[in-house]
Amino acid sequence: QAVFGVGLGPNPGSTNPPDGEFRRALAAVRAIPGVAAGVASPAPLRGGRQTRVRPNGTGPGETELRVGLSSVSDGTFAAFGIPLRYGRTFREPELHSASRVVIVSETLARRLWPGRNPLGQTLAVSEEHWSTRERPAAPDAFRVCEVIGVAGDIQMSQKDENHELIYLPIPLDVLIGGAPLYVRPRSVTAASLAEI
Length: 196
Fold this sequence. Notes:
Radius of gyration: 17 Å
Number of strands: 12
Largest sheet: 6 strands, mixed, barrel
Order of helices and strands: EHEEEHEEHEEEEEEH
């Protein structure tokens, strides 16, 4: 099954598409039978963005890791065929800049909490990814997030498997410059593409 991106950019004369625009687009595409869709930045399989994390309770510089990061909406895991091993995905009301929930990859969960249930654990994530023009993040600030799910490890490219990755809820309320809506239709036909 193919996954492709549909561009959702800002309106003419605007620097930031309203979050309602993303939510309406998601709802409309998901209403099409046999279609899975979600917003992501960057796409989970592309990588290219990293962040710093600390298991909660550690001090600065202690057990600090650099891991891959993708900000996603509900539906993104289904669109990319990424299995959710434990827990749940993000709920639509969590797609905002004040969210404090995170999903981690299987390998990262095993590294941080060996032999323990990762669900309900906390992880401190660098605040830089929630910054906006109006509210820049302090470079050394971390946000404590609750682990709500564990996703299967994914292959980033033919040469690299990303075993340590976190997923944050994409903040549709402050998303600058637009983001693709990733879509996986049941079948790729002229009719299905026209409907999407």
